[in-house]
User: What shape does this take?
Amino acid sequence: MPDLSQPDRERLAAHIEEFGRRIKLSGTPEELESFRYLEREMASYGYRTELLSHDAYISLPGQARVEANGENLRCITHSMSVATTSDGIRAPIVYVGEGDEAAFASVDVVGRIVLVDGIATEEVTALASAHGALGQLHVSPNEHLYEMCISPVWGSPSQVTRSKLPTTVVCTIARDSGATLRAQCLAGETVPVTLWADVDTGWRKTPILVAELPAEKEAGVDAPFVLFSGHHDTWHYGVMDNGGANATMLEAARLLAERRGLWRRGLRLCFWSGHSHGRYSGSAWYADEYWDELDRRCAAHVNVDSTGGEGASVLTNSAVIDELRSVAAEAVEAVSGQRHAGRRHGRAADQSFWGVGIPSMFGSLSHQPPGPVKMLTALGWWWHTRHDTAEHIDLDNLERDTAIVLRVLWRLLTAPVLPLDYTAFAASMRKELLALQDRLGDRMDIDILFSRLNAFEEAVQGVDRMAEDAGEGALEAINRSLMRLSRLLVPLNYTTGHRFSHDSALPHPAWPSLAGLRELADLPQGSPDVPFYAVHARQCRNLVAHALREAQATLAAVVKHDTC
Assistant: This one.
C-alpha cells in the first residue's frame, strides 16, 4: 500500500467547529444549511455533487411532562412516540424490569403505563404496543436523558408496515426519580402517573448529499464504486454523533482524491438525513430508489459514525461482515496496534443495503472502555444528549479513526481483486449449519446444504488460485463474480431473504434466512407442531441451497471461461 498523506488536524478541527454551530434536526432549515457546507467542501475536492430531496416520515420530539406523586419529574419524550392532547394520559404504572418478553408476559399491562429500566428502545416499544400498554416510562441509567427513535419500522413506513408503528406514549426520566417509583411498585403500591408528550410526526422533505468521483481509468455505465456513508442529522448539536464522522468523511474524501489515478473503482459518498428522527429513512429511501444501480455497481459499503470521541480507546470490536473482517483487522492494527476481533452487525448504522447484497463494514469505529453503568452503546455518557459538543472530541482520536477509515477505503478502491474473503463466509455458515444439524436430529435433513457449501468452497479456492496471476481481463471477470456472490450471499447472513424490502428495525438473530430451520430445531421432540414448522423450514432450506448453488455456478463459470 503506497503511503497516504496523514489526516490534516487543522482541517478536522475546522470541520468540528462548523458542525458545532447548528442543531440539525431532520428536514429543518438549519440542517439544510449545514448540508450546504458539506456540498461546498466536497465540490472543492473535485467531486460531482447532487443534493437530493425526498419525502420521509420524520418525528421530532417536543416538550414533555411526567407527573407522579404530586411532582413534575424532569423528562423528555421520544421520536415516534404517540403524542397526547393537553390532558395527557393517566394510568397506574407497572414495573417490567428491563422490559424483555418474559417480563411483559408475566404481568397485565393493558391500559397501564409500564415502568422500564434503561434507555428507550424500539424492542421494548414493540412489546409494550403488542401487549396493550398505554404508555412507557423509561428510567435512565444515570442523570442524563437520552434521545431515541423508538420505531420498530426500518425507514419510512408503507401501508404494509404502518401498523407496526408505536401505539404508546413514551417518556424518559432520570435514574433517581425512577428509583422512587420502582420502590413503590415493588412495595405493592398503586402509583398513578400522568404523561404529556408533544411530538411532531409526519411526512416532510429531507436532504441527501451524494458526492461522486469515478476512477480515472474506469469506463461504462456499470463501472463499480465503493459507497462511503454517514448521517448528518443530529440530536442537539451532535458534534461527535455525527460531526466527528462527517469530518472523517470529508478529510478521507479529500486525501483519496489526491491519489485518484491509482483507483480501480470509483468512490461515492452519501450524507444521510433521517437517521435519528426517521429510523434510517434517508438510507432506506436511497436503497429503494437506486436499487438497480446499487445492485449493478456497488462493490462495498463503509459506514462511519461517532469517530473521534474523547476517551474512545477501544478499537477491537467495530462491526464488520465476515467477508471484510481481514480488511478491518489490517487497518486497525496498522494504525493503532490493536488486534481487531470484530463483531456482528446489529440493526443500526444506516445498514439499509443488505437486501441489495452489498458487503458492509463499520458504523461506530472507536468505543469507550467498559464502565460501571449499563449503556446501549459505548460511545460516551454525552451520546444522544445536549452535552454532545466539541469539548468531547479528541483530535488525536479523530486523526487516528480517520486514518483507519482512509486505509480501509484505499484498499477497497485500489486492490486488483476485491478483498472479499468468502472462505470466512463459508466458515461462518458451516458453524451455523453444524449447530443446527445437532439440534434438528431426524426432524429435517440438511445434508444438501453441506454438499452445496463444500462445492462453493472448492469454487472459491479455484478462483483464488486463478487470481494469483490473472491479467486485467480476468481480474475484471473475477471482480464481477465476487460482486455477484455478495448479491446472493449477504442477504442470507443478514436478512430474512427478501431483497426488495427492509426487515424491521428490531434485533435479528444471526443468519435470519435460517429462521425456519432454527424454529423447527427449537421444538421439543415429539411435538405435534413439527409438521407445521417443517413447512417453513423446508422453504428456508431451499432458499439457502439455491443461493449456494448459484454462487458456486458463478465462480465455476469464471474459471471455465479463463481456461477456454
Notes: The chain has a mean pLDDT of 96.
